[in-house]
């Protein structure tokens, strides 16, 4: 008999509620004679994305159950709720994904004209997405105007009600495009060769390689990317005075940040 483990594997990280994505197919028309290739548009400024899929069951009870219930899943009834901020374009229209969903709720959106095509999936802020947590489906759409206070930021509260079962798909999220690093501070000032300095900024998650951090013309003797906004580096050998700090990633190099070093 094996003993259950209570510790998570090394490298396990805590997930956050905002690490989920939702896309709307801008091309979908259930009544079209010829299906069109999906044009997936992410729903931006979304929050509270909450998919549900309660099972539909039928009794399979028999004498062998000795009077106990025996309900087995025969299908499911999925739905997805979320909110999105009201973003207005110069034309007066809302964001394209909101306009796409809104059209399925108009007075003449009857029958197939009321069906939308959407997908939703795990979308972590960093690291690999869960390959099994991704679905698409066809649904009806309803919405309410939210945040109606005088000083509130306008929002929409949407409910998508599934038409048929969900379809499990390969997770379409392949990771965030790396951003060019930006250095905002290097502390403490006056550090000497071999001492540690903390570099703060943004876009550090993809920084790798021997030339990822440079002080003047010299590569950092050693460095560690602590987070996307923090690098701890060992100052290489060099002369006292000004030394431009540059952080390099596949997306490009940061603008030089002037640092005053000791001997």
Automatic annotation (TrEMBL):
SUPFAM superfamilies: E set domains
Signal peptide boundaries: none
Pfam families to which the protein is assigned, alphabetical: TIG (PF01833)
Domain named IPT/TIG: residues: 181-260
Stored InterPro entries: Ig-like_fold, Ig_E-set, IPT_dom
Protein name according to UniProt: IPT/TIG domain protein
Organism: Oerskovia enterophila
């Amino acid at each position: 008999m094996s003993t259950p483990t209570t510790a998570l594997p090394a490298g396990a990280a805590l997930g956050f509620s905002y690490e989920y994505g939702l896309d709307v197919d801008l091309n979908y028309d259930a009544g079209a004679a010829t299906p069109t290739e999906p044009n997936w548009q992410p729903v931006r400024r979304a929050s509270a994305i909450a998919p549900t899929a309660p099972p539909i069951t039928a009794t399979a009870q028999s004498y062998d159950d000795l009077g106990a219930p025996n309900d087995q899943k025969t299908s499911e009834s999925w739905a997805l709720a979320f909110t999105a901020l009201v973003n207005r374009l110069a034309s007066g229209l809302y964001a394209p994904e909101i306009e796409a969903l809104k059209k399925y709720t108009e007075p003449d959106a009857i029958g197939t004209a009321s069906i939308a095509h959407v997908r939703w999936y795990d979308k972590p802020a960093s690291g690999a997405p869960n390959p099994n947590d991704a679905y698409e489906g066809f649904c009806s759409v309803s919405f309410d105007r939210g945040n109606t206070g005088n000083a509130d930021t306008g929002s929409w509260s949407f409910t998508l009600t599934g038409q048929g079962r969900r379809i499990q798909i390969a997770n379409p999220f392949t990771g965030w495009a790396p951003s060019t690093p930006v250095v905002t501070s290097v502390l403490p000032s006056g550090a000497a060769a071999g001492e540690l300095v903390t570099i703060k900024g943004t876009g550090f998650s993809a920084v790798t390689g021997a030339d990822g951090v440079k002080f003047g013309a010299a590569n950092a003797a050693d460095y560690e990317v602590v987070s996307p906004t923090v690098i701890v580096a060992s100052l290489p050998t060099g002369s006292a005075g000004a030394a431009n700090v540059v952080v390099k990633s596949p997306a490009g190099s940061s603008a030089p940040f002037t640092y005053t070093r000791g001997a």
